[in-house]
Structures are given as structure tokens and as C-alpha cells.
Write a structure and sequence with these properties.
It contains two helices and four strands. The protein is α+β, with helices and mostly antiparallel strands. It has a four-stranded antiparallel β-sheet.
């Protein structure tokens, strides 16, 4: 009997991913924890918080956050559309991989 592979989504070939740092400017329209929950659970994108400066005023979140994401081009478009929904300014910075040379 053949069982479906649970670990692979989208077929046998994985889409190429790249690491980016996504800078998000919080403007009080969405809470920070809801933003992270949506990125991880809804879009299935794992992240690392690189830097965060957030102020809480009357239940609203203001400030900026930088997230390190391993992401495909399709997922980048989805995240940008989601951020545009709440008018959150964002900036993508590709992470350059440095190779170590043998001495």
C-alpha cells in the first residue's frame, strides 16, 4: 500500500527558498502577536526575530520589527499582500551567504 507523504507539499521538487530579512513598521492597526501567529500558522512560514522595538499604547502596537524568513517567491508575494492589507510598510533585504575559504 502507498501512503501519501505528509512532509512534502507541492510535489517531489521543492521550490527554491531564499533567506530575507523583512522589516515591518507597526502602525497600531494589528497586534504584534497576531502578525506572528498569521505568518507562522496561516502562511506556514517559520521566522526568527532579528530585532524588535515595539511600544504598546492603549492596546495598539507601534514600532518596527525585523524578521529573518526562509521563503519562496510565491510566499513573498502572499506576505506582501497581507502586509498591504493593514498598510504596514515593509522592506525586504536579501541575506547574502558568505562562504568560508579554506586557508
Amino acid at each position: 500500500m502507498i501512503y501519501p507523504q505528509e512532509t512534502q507539499k507541492g510535489g517531489f521538487f521543492q521550490k527554491p527558498t531564499k533567506e530575507i530579512i523583512l522589516e515591518i513598521e507597526l502602525n497600531g492597526k494589528i497586534r504584534f502577536d497576531i502578525l506572528l501567529y498569521t505568518i507562522y500558522n496561516h502562511y506556514k512560514i517559520s521566522y526568527k526575530i532579528v530585532n524588535a522595538h515595539i511600544e504598546y499604547l492603549n492596546g495598539n502596537n507601534f514600532g518596527n520589527v525585523k524578521l529573518l524568513l526562509k521563503i519562496t517567491d510565491d510566499e513573498i508575494d502572499k506576505i506582501e499582500n497581507y502586509l498591504g492589507e493593514y498598510k504596514l510598510m515593509s522592506c525586504k533585504i536579501p541575506v547574502l551567504q558568505q562562504t568560508k575559504e579554506a586557508s
